[in-house]
Design brief:
19% helix, 38% strand, 9-stranded antiparallel sheet, 4-stranded mixed sheet, alpha+beta
């Protein structure tokens, strides 16, 4: 048999694949005749075909691993259960748990006033607004304040939460960006009844209900028009000597959105109900002119966005 010098260049991966998928044994110096047969032209063709197939299969395995990594990356976030949530606005259940044992309720748990509003951006970040009310512990009732959000565990850095207040200055909502959406909530710190307290705010992503999508939110909406009938009132001094006097501004809005009211500044003789808009002039007020600056806010509704109007109410006691 005529000898042929044959140089075959193969990668380590190709050789491993070849040895794993064929019955050809390694060739040693003492097996020269067998080596010639193995490395004949026909054997070369067979070897090349099988090795190429092995390389393709190996490449397919690499692609599969990459695809799996992409799937895992896409699923990361929204709790340990990896709850799938798309960009949009949601209503979600939140609760306060014991900071050292999140399986137990926090003593300040009663301050959560209802479902939170969660806005998920296209990049997967989440921002939450939590409605708050007073905390009741035994005979004592108070509002929590100075809310701060831990960036991780209880030994991590804290950042102050955004907040709103009611007409008495009590914090009635907080807003913050969730530092780690792959966790089931965030650690928070608050001041309650003259004490600094930690808690774990659990976010139940599985309860999230979509209320609007980015496409719906991007629709251009019209600003509402708020009208007020009465901004001035005359009251007799003799009437105020007997009892406080109540009147309304007769505010209306074309959007039919819910109206709320807030006193921004002015005389302590005038107060306003934040829900009904009824103004009260206190009993026993002396003769004179009293003013109060009132902000009237309309909630977004339908094709109308939220809006507000500030008016000055003047009361003359004669």
């Amino acid at each position: 048999m005529k000898r042929k010098n044959l140089w075959i260049k193969i990668s380590a991966c190709t050789m491993a694949a070849f040895l794993a998928t064929t019955s050809v044994a390694p060739v040693y110096a003492t097996e020269s005749a067998f080596a010639e047969d193995v490395f004949s032209d026909s054997a070369e063709d067979e070897f090349g075909s099988e090795a190429a197939t092995a390389e393709v299969e190996f490449a397919d395995e690499i692609v599969s691993v990459d695809e799996a990594s992409e799937v895992l990356a896409a699923q990361a976030g929204f709790g340990t259960a990896n709850t799938e949530l798309k960009a949009g606005t949601y209503k979600v259940t939140v609760s306060l748990k014991n900071a050292t044992d999140p399986s137990k309720d926090s003593m300040a748990g009663s301050c959560i006033a209802g479902a939170a509003t969660m806005v998920i951006a296209a990049d997967g970040s989440a921002k939450i607004t939590v409605p708050l009310t007073s905390v009741s512990v035994g005979p004592m009732t108070a509002f929590a304040s100075d809310w701060q959000i831990y960036k991780g565990g209880l030994d991590a850095e804290k950042t102050a939460a955004e907040y709103t207040t009611d007409e008495s200055g009590n914090v009635n909502s907080i807003t913050f960006t969730v530092p780690d959406t792959s966790a089931d909530g965030v650690y928070v710190n608050m001041s309650t009844m003259m004490h600094s307290n930690d808690a774990f705010m659990k976010i139940e992503y599985a309860t999230a209900q979509l209320t609007s999508t980015p496409a719906e939110e991007s629709v251009k909406k019209t600003a509402p028009t708020i009208k007020v009938k009465t901004t001035a009132k005359n009251i007799k001094y003799t009437t105020l000597k007997k009892k406080a006097q109540v009147f309304t501004m007769g505010a209306t809005v074309n959007s039919k959105g819910k109206l709320t009211y807030k006193k921004l500044s002015g005389s302590s003789a005038i107060t306003i109900n934040s829900t009904t808009g009824k103004l009260t002039v206190k009993k026993g007020v002396k003769k004179g002119t009293y003013k109060a600056k009132i902000k009237i806010s309309a909630a977004a509704k339908g094709n109308y966005k939220a809006g507000s109007k500030t008016v000055t109410v003047t009361v003359k006691v004669k």
